[in-house]
Amino acid sequence: MTQRTLELTVDGVKVSVPEGATLLDACRKAGKDVPTFCWAANLTPANVCRICVVELGGARTLVPACSRKAEAGQVVQTDSPRVHLSRKLVLELLGSSVDMSLSRDFQALSKRYGARPERFGNKAARAEAGARDAAHAGHHHPGDGAQAATVGQPVKVDNALFVRDYEKCMLCYKCVEACGTDAQNTFAIAVAGRGFEARISTEHDVALDDSACVFCGNCIGVCPTGALMFASEHELRAQGRWDESKQTVTDTVCAYCGVGCVLSLTVQDNEIVRVTSPSDSSVTGGHLCVKGRFGYGFVKGG
Question: Which of 13, 148, 210, 237 is a good FRET partner for 138, with 20 to 30 A between their CA atoms?
Answer without folding.
Answer: 210
